[in-house]
Amino acid sequence: MWKLARYRMAAGIATRPLADILADQTGESGVPNETAPAGQLPPELLREWRSRLHGAFGGSLHLRHVDSGSCNACEWELTALMNPVYDMQRLGIDFVASPRHADVLVVTGGLTRNLAEAVRLTYEATAHPKAVLAVGDCACGAGLLGRTYAQSGRVDTCVPVLVSIPGCPPHPHRIIRGLLEVMARLEEA
Amino acid sequence: MMVIETVAPSEIGQVCAAYAKRGFRLQTMVGTDERRLSGAYVVRYLFVDDVAHETVECRATIPADKPSYSSATPHVPAADWYEREVFDLLGLRPVGHPRLEPLVLHGERLGEYYPLRKDFDIAAELPPVVRRVAPAALPDGYFEVPVGPIHAGVIEPGHFRFTMRGEVVEALRADLFYTHRGLEKRAEGMPLADGLRIAEQACGVCSVSHALSYAQAVEALVNIAPPPAAGWIRVVLAELERLYNHVGDVGNICAGIGFSVGAMHGARLKEELQQLNDNVVGHRFLRGAVAVGGVAQGLGAAKRDQVRSALERLTPDFSALADVILSHGIVCDRLRDTGRLTPQAAARLGVVGPALRASGVSRDVRRDAPYAAYGALSIAVPTYPQGDVMARLEQRIAEFFGSVALIQEALWRLDSAPKPQPADLCAPLPSAAPFAYGVGVSESPRGENVHFVMANEHGAVERLRIRSASYANWPAVTSAAVDNLIADFPLINKSFELCYACCDR
């Protein structure tokens, strides 16, 4: 127990400030950034984020992840959102265990034939109002594998997509900005 | 040196049985449509003898008008999935196979749709999946728990059916291949060099290993060797991949028992390692770094220093975390004796990688069949005999430190070599002989990855067959779960840390 306490003290706090995460463009050179236009100041973004979060969902947005045939890279980046560095839960956003509890379905992968039914049933099981966030090139229809006998190559052939976040896989901070976009669109609707 | 034994389709099952009896292990099995060349299909079973380092290819040519051969599965249990997959995708029937259900193409058997046949268009639409789920006939006191394919966490899809007696798992069936994407078919017809990008897509988290296996298969096919500097950079890349995977899994095992300190700090260290990957290679999963013939980018002095200083900081950090985990009484109590895989079961099922070494078997591709620059390094292969979750955790912790040492050695070798010119990083690719093929093997964080690549008459990919470590290890998960509490299954599953995507392709 002493070792544990000492280790926790020594490790300190790894969490990055939200403004840093929203402003970070690492690894995105050459990729058009849909959610944070260049020149937007992080503090404004931060203010927008906070108002969206509190306005639209009373401070909580619940996500349900659905893998429609991904290579596991997008899953790891979604998992990274919950690590101490990005710590998405502090923003009031969390993954839930059932589509019944979710506001947003986060779909990764190019919709394989073997999973099409599961994706459709998950969408149907989600309560209104609901939205689908397509994460990664495969889900957005820009994947390297494209359409084959085993997959349609995009998720919007099965469920309506509200926001797409391209990338192979998209960086965690890009996914966080995509969530901001989802909230803005849901508020407009 | 590979020995090739050509036999009649009706005898291949017996011939495979004889090799298995002599101690050979099934490494992979490939079916190819060679009707353009010879008017027939071919199945190839690759067997290796890990002690004598011998490889044997048992091959049968199967006439197009009578597409069947004798199954090896009754004698070689590890051949089960391979033969079912070849039946699904090529329509070659393994006569005598004990459970010839559809594997890769879900639902009812489709008949005339055989996607890997050359006359099948890749974008052709298959009929939708028709599932018929019938309740199992179980004796009194037993019940079934179906789980998946969509799970409660952020993980990949698979369907598990537990046969339970109270809290104890009596049997487990894993239905996988939900993420079958048609990746091997997509690679067909692509230039040999470009096929590597497709091979990388097999798995997000073993991208380097898949890229290396593919590159080595093509290099064997055209008979070239990557330049020495590229070999050292490949070692650094492969070991960086092992580091973030092993650290991530140590955290995940902690998450599997609700030990938050271990889970969160494991996640933090994994994130730091992935940021290091991003800084050094420009990709958090190290994609795009390997090329056929060598590597796609150098590793300059500044980047080498970056790796070194990151490892100097992270190694003691991880060491302290491992100490916290291993000295925690409750954690150890949960992990010991849970999910035991005996060496006998491991051998029967053809298990590879850390899962095999944690069952006490000393085998590692890096030492036994060296590739990249591993031949010039002394590779320590730690083993743990117990075969339980604890052993697999300790195995990964030990391998973390082994990988750090290998990276440091490789960086030192790169330091002492002259600054490489572009030609020192990647050998040019000569043209390939039609229907020549090569096999590439590398040790991913999950074990042995085997790629089979055949060229066509235009120097493009004729056939790619990826046998990932997860493909070999999945049957071990179902075997290790038996006699455990169902609540321990997530933990057992995490201790094997298998991918679904590179199994399903």
Question: Would you give an account of this structure?
Answer:
The complex is a heterodimer of chains A (189) and B (505). Chain A has 189 residues and is of the alpha/beta class. Chain A has a domain at 59-189: Rossmann fold, CATH 3.40.50. Chain A has 7 helices and 5 strands. Chain A has a 5-stranded parallel sheet, with helices on both faces. In chain A, helix 6 (137-140) links the parallel strand 4 and strand 5 (163-165). Chain B has 17 helices and 14 strands. The mean pLDDT of chain B is 91. Helix content of chain B is 40%, strand content 18%. Chain B has 505 residues and is an alpha+beta fold. Chains A and B meet through helix 1, strand 1, helix 4 and helix 5 of A and helix 4, helix 8 and helix 9 of B.
> What is the arithmetic mean of pLDDT of chain B?
91
Tell me the strand percentage band of chain B: 15-25%
CATH topology of the largest domain in chain B: Cytochrome-c3 Hydrogenase, chain B
**Adjacency order of strands in the biggest sheet of chain A:** 2-1-3-4-5
- End-to-end separation of chain B in angstroms reads 29 Å
In a nutshell, what does this entry contain?
Chain A is an alpha/beta fold and 189 residues long. Chain A has a five-stranded parallel sheet with strand order 2-1-3-4-5, with helices on both faces. Chain A has helices at residues 2-11, 18-23, 42-57, 73-80, 116-125, 137-140, 172-188, and strands at 61-67, 93-95, 104-108, 131-135, 163-165.
